[in-house]
Design a protein that fits this description.
Elements (H helix, E strand, L loop, with lengths): L21 H17 L10 E2 L5 E4 L4 E5 L4 E9 L10 E2 L2 H7 L12 E9 L2 E9 L10 E8 L17 H18 L3 H14 L16
Parallel strand pairs: 5-6
Antiparallel strand pairs: 1-8, 2-3, 3-7, 4-8, 6-7
Helix pairs in contact: 1-3, 3-4
Length: 220
């Protein structure tokens, strides 16, 4: 960091940067930077994985059901049941309001306007995160997943091989670098540099401004 001639407003170098194992701080800041980007950027810019082979628990008489989500699930890219006219692209965290709406057959999602929510269920003695889907025609012989794609949470850099691909679009790489660098300079109390780097990332993708300082997990 000193070699890059990065210093604060008073001209003071980042003392000890050459021996402070800065790479470890960068590794530690990567996941938070990734989460901040994933919350506002197109999901197609990140790794996308199929989960159509996950266990499905249909409630055939009522036309609804749920699918067990992979353990590394982070964001829903798209989910479509066979019989739906369109896919669902958002998954809302289940709460009292969403539960009340979706439990009512007149207000819940349908083949024309499908809805997905995320909740926890006890399955075979283990609490699992599931994707609830609403809804299909009552009394079908089976419920079949047509498409199920999600963004998995990223792997920490410390777990990656040196030549391993990060699996993000090239448009995200530079922004990730600025956000990670901002976090590292904040840790070293170089707030002016950190603010400048953060602002540079926001200029490259203005949507980041709306979630500055928020630790985002799942879009609601």
């Amino acid at each position: 960091m000193n070699e890059a001639q990065l210093m604060d407003a008073t001209g003071t170098f980042l003392i000890g940067a050459d021996t402070a194992q800065v790479d470890k701080y960068i590794e530690g800041s990567y996941v938070d930077a990734w989460r901040r980007c994933a919350a506002v950027m197109p999901r197609a810019w990140f790794e996308n994985t199929d989960f159509s082979n996950m266990p499905i628990f249909p409630d055939l008489p009522s036309g609804k059901g749920y699918v067990v989500l992979p353990e590394d699930f982070y964001l829903l890219t798209g989910f479509k049941m066979h019989g739906w006219l369109k896919a669902a692209y958002e998954a809302y965290i289940d709460n009292d309001r969403t539960s009340s709406i979706q439990s009512n057959e007149y207000t819940r999602g349908s083949e024309i306007r499908p809805i997905c929510t995320i909740s926890n269920k006890l399955i075979s003695g283990t609490v699992k995160q599931v994707l609830n889907y609403y809804s299909l025609k009552r009394g079908l012989d089976a419920h079949v997943i047509e498409e199920a794609i999600y963004v998995p949470v990223c792997k920490p850099l410390i777990e990656c091989e040196l030549d391993e691909e990060l699996k993000v679009n090239h448009q995200v790489i530079e922004i990730l670098a600025y956000l990670s660098a901002s976090s590292v300079f904040t840790l070293f109390e170089k707030y002016d540099i950190a603010k400048a780097l953060d602002q540079k990332a926001i200029e490259m993708f203005p949507g980041l401004k709306s979630i500055r300082g928020i630790n985002t997990t799942i879009k609601q």
